[in-house]
Design brief:
The chain is 18% helix and 21% strand. It has 375 residues and is an alpha+beta fold. The strands form eight sheets. A four-stranded mixed sheet has the order 12-3-14-13. β10 and β11 form a beta hairpin. The protein is globular, with a radius of gyration of 22 Å.
């Protein structure tokens, strides 16, 4: 195995292939605090990409309630149990990644879900105490909490699916870092399904090949965000490009949130894949749970988010989420306005940081009628 530097864990790690980053890396930030689990993103993806035979169970995008929800069942718990207790030393991960913890003769530590594990896509939905019989509204001996976690393929810098494939049928596009399956080469061994810790590779039993989220690359090539992004009701998503930390540019919205403000964090960075979907952690969940899920920067990210109202740059940039269908590679704040701009620094969208407030009198003097306030 080769050594590759993984900035998310602060060290070099063992990986099946040498480090080789694409010219640009597709990335996204999801603000968990704004997700309402309406599943509009799930349906937008489902009707676009997985409405065929053999794809019935496939959800390239799903939204699950943490800590009790998961699709497939226990996708995270099973792997964390196999990996065992590990530790961080400051910002450096001192434990083993799933590549370093693999048994002799295996490329990746993983597990393959059974058919029944895919049978309950909404398990644990809106559940904050496990199984709640007759409700638990009047019993508060401890924290009652849950949050929604929207998930797509992370288009990792070091994909486990790619490393595990004996056919070399999974590849990472050099122009944008999107991870795809060459179904002409795939023979359905399902090593990718076993290896992906996020379980975002699916096997089609009719075609005998694997399928996965393609980040809607035909839209990305046209400068348009993926289906699940543009259909998001809560406006929690922003697609763009991420740089390596040493090349971070504050005018790049993804770089600003991930590298400059350290507000958006990767999902299970300790697994070693350097995933490229980043999350703003929920502010109301226990710190220990969030540190396990998002790494040691979770507490700082939550503090930064709580202070966003007093930081016009963070507050303004968060207002760009869901404001345009276009990919936003650049941004800037102009007083009380925030602009999304393209690679040539031309304006894509301009949004106010504050919405105007209009107060209407109870009696309309012009039309001589009383206005009715409807609850």
């Amino acid at each position: 195995m080769a050594l590759a530097f993984n900035w998310q864990i602060g060290r070099s790690m063992s990986y099946w292939y040498p480090e080789g980053r694409p010219k640009r890396q597709f990335a996204a930030v999801f603000d968990i605090n704004k997700c309402i689990a309406c599943q509009t993103c799930t349906l937008a993806c489902k009707t676009t990409w997985t409405s065929g035979k053999g794809q019935e169970y496939m959800l390239f995008n799903n939204v699950e309630s943490k800590p009790y929800g998961s699709y497939p069942l226990a996708w995270d718990l099973n792997l964390l149990t196999k990996l065992g207790a590990q530790e961080w030393r400051g910002k450096e991960y001192a434990g083993r990644t799933i590549f370093e913890a693999a048994a002799a003769g295996e490329r990746v530590l993983g597990w393959r879900p059974d058919d029944l594990d895919y049978a309950y896509p909404n398990v644990g939905e809106d559940d904050c105490t496990g199984r709640v019989d007759r409700g638990a509204a009047m019993h508060l001996p401890h924290l009652h909490w849950f949050f929604y976690l929207a998930r797509i393929c992370n288009h990792c810098t070091y994909p486990a699916c790619l490393a595990s494939c004996p056919r070399g049928s999974i590849y990472k596009r050099p122009e944008d870092g999107i991870v795809l399956v060459d179904q002409g080469r795939c023979r359905g061994y399902r090593e990718c399904v076993r290896a992906c810790p996020y379980k975002k590779v699916f096997f089609n039993p009719l075609t005998g090949t694997s399928e996965k989220c393609i980040a809607c690359y035909p839209k990305i090539e046209q400068g348009v965000q993926p289906q699940c992004f543009v259909n998001c009701i809560g406006k929690i998503r922003l697609a763009g490009w991420i740089s390596a930390p040493e090349k971070a540019r504050p005018e790049n919205p993804i770089d600003f949130l991930v590298h400059v403000k350290k507000l958006a964090l990767p999902l299970f960075p300790q697994l070693g894949l350097e995933p490229n979907v980043y999350y703003i952690p929920p502010i109301h969940a226990p710190a220990a749970f969030l540190e396990q899920m998002f790494g040691p920067g979770a507490a700082q990210a939550i503090e930064t988010y709580r202070e966003a109202a007093r930081d016009p740059d963070v507050c303004g940039l968060l207002g760009l989420f869901g404001s345009t269908e276009r990919v936003v590679p650049r941004w800037k704040r102009d007083g009380e306005w925030v602009e999304g701009r393209d690679d040539d620094d031309r304006q894509i969208v301009r949004v106010p940081m504050r919405e105007p407030v209009y107060i209407q009198e109870a009696f309309d003097a012009k039309y001589q009628v009383a206005r009715t306030n409807c609850p």
